[in-house]
Design a protein that fits this description.
The chain has 537 residues and is of the alpha+beta class. It folds into four domains: 9-132, Uridine Diphospho-n-acetylenolpyruvylglucosamine Reductase, domain 2; 139-251, Uridine Diphospho-n-acetylenolpyruvylglucosamine Reductase, domain 3 (2-Layer Sandwich); 269-307 and 372-478, Vanillyl-alcohol Oxidase, Chain A, domain 3, CATH 3.40.462; 494-536. The chain contains 17 helices and 18 strands. The strands form four sheets. Strands 15-12-14-13-17-18-16 form a seven-stranded antiparallel β-sheet. A five-stranded antiparallel β-sheet has the order 5-6-10-8-9. β8 and β9 (217-218) form a beta hairpin. Bound molecules: flavin-adenine dinucleotide (FAD) and 2-acetamido-2-deoxy-beta-D-glucopyranose (NAG) (9 copies). One 2-acetamido-2-deoxy-beta-D-glucopyranose binds at residues 50-51, 53-54, 58, 60. This is Berberine bridge enzyme-like 18. Keywords: Cell wall, Disulfide bond, FAD, Flavoprotein, Glycoprotein, Nucleotide-binding, Oxidoreductase, Secreted, Signal. Residues 78-252 form the FAD-binding PCMH-type domain.
Length: 537
């Protein structure tokens, strides 16, 4: 487990590279100039390419680099910077970037929305290029057939908006935060408030366009079912650049209902959270997704309490929802006044915290408030007892107000019906809920970062007995390098990669390795947590 302050691993990597390969440092102009010429030669008739190439000499470089970085821990002058940022406006430019990067030994980090928790889409210890898909974000909704093609650079907010323009009875199961990029999100699974009804985003993908390691453009038919399986949850930056996805849209009623109900310890939060574990996944209808957000707060009397927010989406009207809650969870005391009826598209801004704003907020790629953060994930298969809940509350209360939060996301429903091997994402039947452990902060000092990271690691240690074991599972879209990393040189051992690999993919890890070995044996597409090919062991 890494115990250093943030960035240290990247700085270390840079140092090792410089020591081992001094020619990169001393002759860096040449490979870079060759790379640039390669782009130019291959795209002679493409006048837009010069507008798509940003080097540190361009004024645009910093703003293009920084704009989509969500985790402020990695938005610092001493973070490793790319030699080039390429923002293709055409798929052929993606193919050329792959060809030229490979030829001139530059690593590629592809970026769609930039939400990677550990910054892997824009940081590398090796000389690298960011292939930023921000300008490839076309969305074509075919409401009649209930399908859509969406390019990877689109955000889920843009996708929701375009669906909403065409239909009031279609939706798509994807993330709660509108600025999340489709490219990374679908590559790691992707879930939101319709998880229990329709599963993950990746469960609803029916075709894709992928540029492979040779720069060849493949669709589902030409890539074959193994690669098509792997890209639906097997992690980004591993099998190729997914340029575009064809998705199956899902039916939603004209009116859905949302609520957010707060209960503190004085309002029986402990027994409510305890009971929630027995109904949220197993008993409630698939149409109801009720998650719990937990944190501590200083009361007016100076006493610290626990706040449990029960936040839910019901795919139906309030009267029905009140019946369901009255019979399954009367203790919560949900009232008609708590319930907000709205179209599904409005529910996307409600859960994103933008109620009352125009729907166009979904198109705003900068609407998310950036912060410093470290998040981790866990899966729970046995309900947590009340005495253990009390122990958890002590941790939340002991931390500064709000410094430690948890989000409990119920599983069950559709998630339990899909087999563990249908796509690489393995966390299906048997999981009651997933925990997201969070600490986020605004003070950028090294001391504060160290304190927060140490806090969440200790808390994660405390939670070990109460969550999944062998492996202690994790969600790849909640990327966490504490659970294991590849080394920079591609000579990662099977044992080393399988540590983090089985946590994210369980028994699907081996099939992912086989697919990777077939499609990218030289491990060109790689990062600290990409599935390695057999040849690199
Ligand atoms: C504020 C916030 C809210 C979130 N909310 C949710 C949520 O509600 N539900 C949920 O499931 N997750 C959520 N996440 C996690 C999110 O799903 C992941 O961080 C996801 O990987 C982000 O995708 P991206 O394109 O924005 O990120 P990026 O950082 O661009 O990419 C993430 C990874 O995918 C790779 N990648 C990017 N584009 C491509 C591509 N076109 N082809 C292949 N690989 C690619 C990158 O190299 C990187 O390894 C949230 C994250 C944040 C920061
Ligand atoms: C970056 O600078 C080069 C050289 O001046 C120029 O050709 C290119 O168009 C610039 N890129 C952008 C995006 O402006
Ligand atoms: C790029 O140019 C080289 C040499 O001219 C050529 O061999 C290669 O096929 C081209 N690649 C692409 C993707 O256009
Ligand atoms: C479904 O898609 C096909 C092919 O694009 C199109 O011809 C047809 O009109 C669509 N059906 C409906 C109901 O829109
Ligand atoms: C808390 O639970 C007890 C017993 O289950 C009940 O009597 C009491 O009314 C509840 N309090 C609140 C505020 O719901
Ligand atoms: C605050 O905490 C003290 C000590 O636990 C307790 O005696 C008191 O009743 C609490 N105040 C309120 C308003 O709950
Ligand atoms: C949906 O949201 C939009 C934008 O905030 C708002 O104008 C509209 O009144 C909302 N519709 C309903 C039925 O709540
Ligand atoms: C997008 O949202 C951010 C943050 O709320 C805001 O500052 C910015 O003005 C918005 N941009 C547009 C184009 O509305
Ligand atoms: C940030 O944290 C450091 C160390 O914990 C502290 O010294 C400093 O005063 C803090 N800065 C702000 C603005 O709170
Ligand atoms: C990996 O490869 C690098 C570079 O060749 C070498 O220095 C290092 O010792 C290798 N590590 C292992 C674990 O084999």
């Amino acid at each position: 487990m890494e115990i250093n302050v943030p960035f240290s691993r990247f700085q270390l990597c840079c140092l090792v590279i410089l020591l081992c390969f001094p020619y990169i440092a001393f002759a860096s102009g040449n490979p870079h100039e060759n790379f640039r010429q390669c782009l130019t030669v291959n795209l002679t008739k493409d006048t837009s390419i010069s507008q798509a190439v940003h080097t540190p000499a361009n004024l645009s470089y910093s703003s293009v680099l920084d704009v989509s970085i969500q985790n402020l821990r990695f938005l610092t002058p001493d973070a490793p910077k790319p030699s080039f940022i390429i923002t293709p406006v055409d798929v052929s430019q993606v193919q050329t970037v792959i060809y030229c990067s490979r030829k001139y030994g530059l690593q590629v980090r592809m970026r769609s929305g930039g939400h990677d928790y550990e910054g892997l889409s824009y940081l590398s210890g090796s000389p690298f290029v960011i292939l930023d898909l921000v300008n490839l974000r076309a969305i074509t909704v075919d409401a009649g057939n209930a399908t859509a093609w969406v390019q990877s650079g689109a955000t889920v907010g843009e996708l929701y908006y375009r669906i909403g323009e065409k239909s009031t009875t279609l939706g798509f199961p994807a993330g709660v935060c509108p600025t999340v990029g489709v490219g990374g999100h679908f590559s790691g699974g992707g879930y939101g408030m319709m998880l229990r009804k329709y599963g993950l985003s990746a469960d609803n993908i029916i075709d894709a366009q992928v540029a492979d390691v040779n720069g060849k453009l493949l669709d589902r038919k030409s890539m074959g079912e193994d690669l098509f399986w792997a890209i639906r949850g097997g992690g980004g930056n591993t099998f190729g650049v997914v340029v575009s996805w064809k998705i199956r849209l899902v039916p939603v009623p004209e009116t859905v209902t949302g609520f957010t109900v707060l209960r503190t310890l004085h309002q029986n939060a402990t027994s409510l959270v305890h009971k929630w574990q027995f109904i949220a996944a197993e008993e409630l209808p698939h149409e109801l997704y009720m998650r719990v957000i937990l944190q501590s707060r200083n009361g007016a009397d100076g006493n610290r309490t626990i706040e449990a927010f029960f936040e839910a989406l019901y795919l139906g009207e309030a009267d029905e929802l009140l019946d369901v809650m009255g019979s399954s969870f009367p203790e919560l005391g949900l009232t008609r006044e708590d319930c907000i009826e709205m179209p599904w598209i409005n529910s996307t801004i409600y859960f994103a915290g933008f109620s009352g704003q125009p729907l166009e907020i979904l198109l705003n790629r900068s609407s998310n408030t950036k912060s410093y953060f470290k998040y981790k994930s866990d899966y729970v298969k046995e309900p947590i007892s009340e005495p253990v809940l009390e122990e958890i509350w002590k941790w939340l209360i002991k931390a500064d107000q709000g410094a430690l939060q948890m989000i409990w996301n119920p599983y069950g429903g559709r998630m339990s019906e899909i087999s563990e091997s249908a796509i690489p994402f393995p966390h299906r039947a048997g999981n009651i809920f997933k925990i997201q452990h969070l600490t986020s902060w605004t003070n950028g000092s090294v001391e504060e970062s160290a304190k927060r990271i140490s806090l969440i690691r200790s808390f994660y240690g405390f939670m070990a007995p109460f969550v999944s074991k062998s492996p202690r599972s994790a969600y790849i879209n909640y990327r966490d390098l504490d659970i294991g990393m590849n080394n920079e040189f591609g000579n990662t051992s099977y044992g080393q990669a399988s540590i983090w690999g089985t946590k994210y993919f369980n028994r699907n890890f081996d099939r992912l390795v086989r697919v990777k070995t077939a499609v990218d044996p030289s491990n060109f597409f790689r990062n600290e947590q990409s599935v390695p090919p057999l040849t690199s062991w």
